[in-house]
Write a structure and sequence with these properties.
Length: 263
């Protein structure tokens, strides 16, 4: 890690501690993270019972392509209300972070095109350096983990569609950060699971998904399941790409996620 990055993380950690003193608890707050001469829009939610000096789990949530932009709002469209609910606040107090990816870029360098039959075909190149938004998100996670309020053994990642693809690539690039993950209507190259096969992942997909076909998540799951019996795969036979409706309503989702810790 370069000196500039270290300085940015230390400054941000100090700034974040001050912000938490006045941030509204139980509701998302708009924030901007600055590092590497760039900025990242995100929203953060603190639990209702937030206490200075207490460590909480951290959930990073990567949105889909439809929520990209610069309003620092759309990224909460899918999933935001789940974490603000009274029951989740009571049973699963955590620090929740929803970054927003700008238009014209993605969390990954994935490519797709339709074949002669009209079916989508995906490629998942992984260049040496991730797209800038993902690089910024990773730096933000580093900042939060280095602070006094996050339990570094209980950092989780979730993602929908483009964010589900991003989740798997984040695990490939930075597997040491995350104790468990949830991937909704996403997928990736199953040949790249070697770095993260030890991370428990719950996959969700719609059987009729014609945007990201379920074969792409199923292939990753099959490869991971060989060495990680804690991972799960749930297929909703009648759901299309909007399998997030069912996945985010799964009553055991957060209970399953929060059981895992880094040793």
């Amino acid at each position: 890690m370069g000196e500039l990055m270290r300085s940015a993380i230390l400054c941000f950690a100090f700034w974040l501690g001050a912000q938490w003193a006045w941030a509204q608890k139980g509701a998302f707050e708009k924030q901007v993270y600055y590092a590497q001469g760039d900025s990242l829009l995100y929203q953060i939610l603190l639990p209702n019972d937030f206490q200075e000096g207490k460590k909480y789990p951290l959930i990073l949530f990567l949105h889909g392509a439809g929520e990209r932009g610069d309003d620092n709002e759309k990224q909460l469209k899918l999933g935001g209300s789940l974490f603000e609910s009274d029951s989740v606040q009571q049973d699963y107090p955590a620090i929740i972070v929803f970054p927003q990816c700008p238009e014209g870029t993605m969390w990954t360098a994935r490519q797709k095109q339709k074949d002669r039959k009209g079916d989508w075909r995906f490629n998942f190149p992984v260049p040496e350096h991730p797209p800038k938004p993902s690089e910024m998100v990773n730096a933000l996670v580093d900042s939060l983990r280095s602070g006094t309020q996050v339990d570094p053994s209980r950092v989780y990642i979730m993602g929908i569609s483009m964010g589900g693809i991003g989740t798997l690539e984040f695990l490939h690039r930075w597997p040491e950060k995350y104790a468990a993950a949830a991937v909704i209507c996403g997928g990736h190259n199953p040949q790249l699971t070697g770095n993260y096969h030890q991370v428990p992942i719950w996959f969700f997909h719609g059987g009729k998904d014609d945007v990201v076909p379920p074969a792409f998540s199923k292939a990753v799951f099959k490869r991971i399941k060989r060495k990680n019996k804690a991972s799960r795969y749930t297929l909703y036979p009648e759901a299309n790409h909007n399998s997030w409706d069912d996945a985010l309503a799964e009553p055991q989702l957060l209970n399953w996620l929060f059981q895992f810790k880094h040793l």
